[in-house]
Amino acid sequence: MVRIMNRELEVPIIQGGMGVGVSLGRLAGAVAKEGGMGVISTVNAGYREPDFDTNTFEANIRALNKEIKRALDIAEGNGIVAINAMVAVNHYEETIKAAIDAGVQAVISGAGLPLTLPDVTKGTDVAAAPIVSSGKAAKVICKGWDKKYGVAPDFIVIEGPKAGGHLGFKREEIVDGTAQSTDDILPEVLAEISPYEEKYNRKIPVFVAGGVFDGNDMARLMGKGASGVQIATRFIATNECDASEEYKKMIVEAKEEDVTIVKSPVGMPGRALNSPMIKRLAQGESLSPERCNLCLKACPHGDKTPYCISRALIEAVKGNREDGLFFCGANVGRVNKITSVAELMNELMTEYREAIS
User: Fold this and answer.
1) 311 burial class (0-12, 13-18, 19+ CB within 10 angstroms)?
2) What's 202's domain CATH number?
3) Which pLDDT tens digit goes with each residue over 173-204?
4) 211 and 112, same structural domain?
5) How many domains does the chain have?
6) Do the domain assignments include residue 230?
7) Domain co-membership, 190 together with 159
8) Does any domain span residue 137?
9) Is residue 59 a contact partner of residue 51, using CB atoms and an 8 Å limit?
10) pLDDT by residue (tens digit) across 250-272?
11) Is 121 left (phi over 0), alpha (psi -120 to 50) or beta?
12) Distance separating alpha carbons of residues 340 and 225, to the nearest angstrom
């Protein structure tokens, strides 16, 4: 049992936020119903709305509202329903405000340092959590939140180099294996937050993500001081995942050698399946977008970008093997079946209990 603000997380598992459209209300609600934290990705949540191309921001807010309410209905008062909001996107704070109005219970934020997050959540009963990839990042965030807003994080997610999607490490570190592991980052983060736990007289739970696959990983990390874990890729291969069946099949069929490190148009490295689109880019083909929704702050936009990551992720969630960008974690090759959220979480907790007994 993990206490986060005024809520209890019965199962110490966060389902990682996955965009575009991979983790929406159905998946997040199912995870929360089982006592965990279900996370809706806010990135272009409205991609299925009829006016998405012409009215992108409003379409995203409208869809986000629907998905949060859907998740809360499915959860039936269990667990916690959260959003994942990327600092790197435009309309960052407006999106979080809309999610709070819709009833979301926690905000997890990364892809940059969420230094202004408390400006939106302070004074509400919505938990605020940064994603960090180092003790240094945790220190900067805690110091900044404390000094400017008089608050500390309600919990923290450590995302290690084996995670899927955008990564907070240099490409060379990831490829050659010199990036700091989650096991090494964890004690540094715990040390950095200790003064703030003392100052605010409460525990700041830390959840570890990136390469966490089973209950044995949970036991190892929680034995080192983590309060829980965050898992993403395994939740794609569930009946309740909001992605297409074709996406789920690709995850189940994937082997370790099918994974590669890609360069995002925003300059960050990311882990994904080596899909036909990625292979075409590697061969020098230009896939400049026909139109731009201005979703990312740092994207060069238009003809200057090698490909539109938003469009590629939308094609992926639809199951377009040829033109999609399929983010995944390093352990995707170990996923071999599609199951239900309840079965997966029961398996993880059974393994965890056996490991610690």
Assistant:
1) buried
2) 3.20.20.70
3) 888 888 899 999 999 999 999 999 999 999 99
4) yes
5) 2
6) yes
7) yes
8) yes
9) yes
10) 999 999 999 999 887 777 888 99
11) alpha
12) 29
